[in-house]
């Protein structure tokens, strides 16, 4: 077996949430290129079907399921259906992360709950269901997408960092509880990526100048630059990495 074989996902089945576009789509493409069947998910079925067609058109295996991750009961059903359809579930990437940049006082209790439900409780629910399947298989990879804000704070952005820091706790609790059964649990903390969501600001001269000054690599991340980290943690190449938060930010968070 070569080191390249250890990156193979042949025979594996993966669910990536929020994978119709952005970082989720890049990670889904990478897992499919490595041989996994990837289940794409998000709320708009048209976007997911287009993404799945692009993956299958390139020789990969993919299917699509539309659901809102904030609906925990449906999340449980989706995981059970993947297990029923494919006989297994090897990789879960909790990638959905909604953001609402406001100060504490600007949120109602219901708005806070909704954001925590979408960004954190969804990942807890999906991970709990997936982990039990993985435990029975004796193999699994749980991955959650946090953010470099997951170890910091940002003025006027009160709730998102709380949810992301909760995800780090989730990843570590799962790592401790399911490690003995061959299931690893890790996080990826992206820095600033020029995804569709950031398209407008990533091209502004002010932001380009800001990134040049703030990031040692002096630029925005390209969406496809998240994929290597996801494949590493999802494959046997990362088999002894457990409970880790892998920062992918061009060095932004290590520089004052
Ligand atoms: N981009 C960055 O620079 C950056 C930086 C740090 C961390 N992150 C984190 O990385 C992850 C991906 O970011 P991104 O910018 O690539 O995401 P994005 O483009 O904003 O969203 C990705 C997908 O999530 C789906 N989605 C949103 N809400 C959903 C929900 N409630 N249920 C199901 N699907 C939902 C969307 O599809 P539908 O609208 O069809 O549902 C969309 O296709 C997030 O967790 C984010 O916090 C990103």
Short description:
By secondary structure, the protein is of the alpha/beta class. It has helices at residues 22-33, 45-57, 72-86, 109-137, 160-178, 199-202, 205-214, 227-234; strands spanning 13-16, 37-42, 61-66, 91-94, 140-145, 183-190, 245-248. It has a 7-stranded parallel sheet, sandwiched between helices.
Termini separation comes to 43 Å
CATH class group: Alpha Beta
Largest sheet: 7 strands, parallel
Percent of residues in β-strands: 5-15%
- Which ligands are bound? NADP nicotinamide-adenine-dinucleotide phosphate
Structural class: alpha/beta
**How helical, in percent, are the residues?**
40-55%
Structure report:
With about 260 residues, this protein is an alpha/beta fold. The chain has one domain: NAD(P)-binding Rossmann-like Domain (Rossmann fold, 3-Layer(aba) Sandwich), CATH 3.40.50.720. Helices cover about 45% and strands about 15% of the residues. It is built from 8 helices and 7 strands; from the N terminus they run βαβαβαβαβαβαααβ. It has a 7-stranded parallel beta sheet with strand order 3-2-1-4-5-6-7, sandwiched between helices. α1 crosses α8, α3 runs parallel beside α4 and α4 runs parallel beside α5. It is globular. The protein starts with 12 loop residues before the first strand and ends in an 8-residue tail after the last strand. Bound molecules: NADP nicotinamide-adenine-dinucleotide phosphate (NAP). NADP nicotinamide-adenine-dinucleotide phosphate binds next to α1. The site of NADP nicotinamide-adenine-dinucleotide phosphate has 28 residues, from α1.
């Amino acid at each position: 077996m070569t080191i390249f074989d250890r990156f193979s996902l042949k025979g594996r089945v993966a669910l990536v949430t929020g994978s119709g576009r952005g970082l989720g789509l890049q990670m889904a493409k990478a897992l499919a290129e490595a041989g996994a069947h990837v289940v794409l998910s998000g709320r708009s079925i048209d976007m997911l079907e287009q993404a799945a067609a692009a993956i299958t058109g390139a020789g990969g295996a993919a299917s699509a399921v539309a659901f809102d991750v904030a609906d925990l009961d449906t999340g449980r059903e989706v995981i059970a259906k993947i297990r029923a359809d494919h006989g297994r579930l090897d990789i879960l990437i909790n990638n959905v992360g909604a953001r609402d940049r406001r100060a504490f006082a600007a949120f109602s209790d219901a708005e806070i709950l909704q954001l925590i439900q979408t960004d954190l409780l969804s990942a807890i629910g999906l991970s709990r269901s997936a982990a039990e399947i993985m435990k029975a298989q004796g193999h699994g990879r749980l991955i959650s997408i946090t953010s470099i804000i997951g170890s910091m704070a940002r003025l006027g952005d009160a709730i998102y960092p709380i949810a992301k820091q909760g995800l780090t706790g989730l990843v570590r609790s799962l790592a401790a509880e399911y490690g003995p059964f061959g299931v690893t649990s890790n996080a990826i903390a992206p820095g600033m990526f020029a995804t569709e969501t950031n398209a407008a600001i990533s091209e502004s001269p002010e932001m380009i100048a800001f990134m040049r000054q703030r990031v040692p690599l002096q630029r925005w991340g390209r969406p496809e630059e998240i994929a290597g980290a996801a494949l590493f943690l999802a494959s046997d190449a990362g088999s002894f990495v457990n409970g880790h938060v892998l920062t992918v930010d061009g060095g932004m968070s290590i520089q004052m």
